[in-house]
Amino acid sequence: MSRVASDALVMFGVTGDLAYKQIFAALLGLVRDEGLNVPIIGVAKSGWDLGQLKDYAKKSLAQHGPVDTSAQDRLLSLLRYVDGDYADPATFAKLHDELGNATSPLNYLAVPPSLFGTVATAIAEAGTVRDARLVIEKPFGHDRASAKALNAMLRKTFPEDNIFRIDHFLGKEPMQNLLYTRFANPIFEPIWNRHYVRSIQITMAESFGVDDRARFYDATGANRDVLQNHLLQVLAHIAMDPPTGEESEAMRDQKAALLKAVRPIDPSDVVRGQYCGYRAIDGVRPDSTVETFIAVKLFIESWRWEGVPVYIRTGKNLPITATEVCVDFHRPPRETFGELVPGGSAHMRFRLGPDMAIGMGLRVKQPGERMTGNDMELLLTSQAATYRPPYQRLLGDALHGKGDLFGREDIVDAQWRIVQNILDDATPLYTYEPGSWGPDEATQLIGGDGPWREPQH
Fold this sequence. Notes:
Structural class: alpha/beta
Radius of gyration: 24 Å
CATH topology of the largest domain: Dihydrodipicolinate Reductase, domain 2
CATH superfamily of the largest domain: Dihydrodipicolinate Reductase, domain 2
Distance between the termini: 43 Å
Helix content: 25-40%
Number of domains: 2
CATH class of the largest domain: Alpha Beta
CATH architecture of the largest domain: 2-Layer Sandwich
Strand content: 15-25%
């Protein structure tokens, strides 16, 4: 993979919601912290001029806390703007002129997936592809077949090494910390396998509904929105083998190997739910069968993990907003003190958001003559969410051609393979009350491997 730094950044969809909420703040961080000093060319069909784009950027930055005035001025000085339709060759001719002598631009497509092919083809036809890179936002297809078709279309104009598929979850500091903790501490590797691990639980709970993105969500659902991408990446981080060698692809090779070993999920191992009141939201179809909650049971077909069940659940309008991984260990082969001990007594807990923490569950003796104990958790670390925004890390990596934290074609395909059998209405839909932990059927799914571990405030 080329490590030549990009000499321009082209932002398609620069007047959109994603740019406003995430990208301008990330660009400010890159200018302030990493010395970004290349032209930043926004492209959109909004009837704007450069002055309006700068005002939009300033308004966005003002909503992200105190602004470094000096860094903001430098960022604004780098901005350029091209207004036009993505289907009009004249738009890309103007873009070509704005790029000037740039030979390795990073093209960031914050546009609907239906436009990925249109924009990528137009970039190539305008002669601006050369050694260019392409960054695309999820979703990468709507199912396995459409993802393959999208990749084939993009590969007509861009080599795989120059395609960066963003999953912002991979840029989050807690995800990096999860990998670091696993592979930087030798005490974990001997017990990180089927001989000691009883089960793995991954929960991504959100206490809010879909009101601000109902139309998008009703065409997507919890499976496509977070299970197929974010949460399978969390699984890869918690279960992959250590990367071997120093090649830049070593980390992604191991993620790919892990995800390719996951057995496609059987519909009998899925519970889908929809919170009461969802269908009354503006933008949602009155007869919608889209899930706002999904829980699955899956297995990894490898020597390390054979027979270890993995339970993943995510949902809207649950009691709190939090993402956690819990690795439950087997109890000792014999309970020396004759106690009835809960199955989840011994565990490792990784809190990935909104704060970050690592805890270890232990059995500790109660004071007194009797040899009985309580379950306690030793908090190994707890950190506030004061780390570099994920888009700053990811855009910085893409500008330098580093693909470690981006989705590779075979990884994306493996993720779709895992969920292909359970897309859409492949399983029944149950209702649940807002503020609950989802439908009761999810408790039946986990059965004797439970209970589900409920993240705490």
